[in-house]
Amino acid sequence: MAATMVKMPTSKVTIAYAPVRGLGAAIKMCCEFAGADYEVFEYQGVENKLEVDAWREGWWADKPAMYEKNSMINIPFVVDGETVVSQSNACLTYLGRKYKLLGSNDAELTKVEQCLCELMDLRNTVVGICYGPPDTYEQRAKDHFDNYVQVSFGKFEKWLTVNKTKFLGADVPTVADFHMFEMLDQHETWCKPLGKPQPLDKFPLLKELHTNIRTHPNLAKYFDGPQYKLTINAKRANFF
User: For residue 85, which of 34, 166, 13 has the smallest C-alpha distance?
Assistant: First the structure.
């Protein structure tokens, strides 16, 4: 069996991903919030054939070996000893169980699971625009802020109103809040080059959640460090 670029078994939790925030951000925030002993493995170019996002060469070279470890493999993935976990929500729930960030009871867990699924719907919509055809990008992006964002953010605002909690699953952060923060934060940045207003100005509870995550002392190292300073998307995207 071919050796993988991520050395196994790992001595600490390892998050493998591209050198972008993307789907990896919430997973990294989870480990940082928990005070976990973890490291980030970023794929890099190996043949210098790609002028943009050369890291894909490294991932493509490593994927066959990782497939032998987990046939569901894609990035991001988490390695914990001999365990390899792929698929973003599975990574979050795996770490949520490990670090007790899935709520304190079944009712809170159910809330977290629902929000993770809804957030992936939002994320996939954003990806379709950011990595879609460049000739229709600007109009699609503006329509997204005018329409989809109002509905999607409205759902989460209503969720917080009805559940009367500070965060999505409880009054303390869970893994869902890290992905929620990332999607809110991306939109607060993305709106600027499009000339759109800050979307959180219309959603006070989401704005409070965003602020509470951004200023949480457990995450100070993450926000001050290099991972938060990565581009949001890969450089081949319409917006990165």
Answer: 13
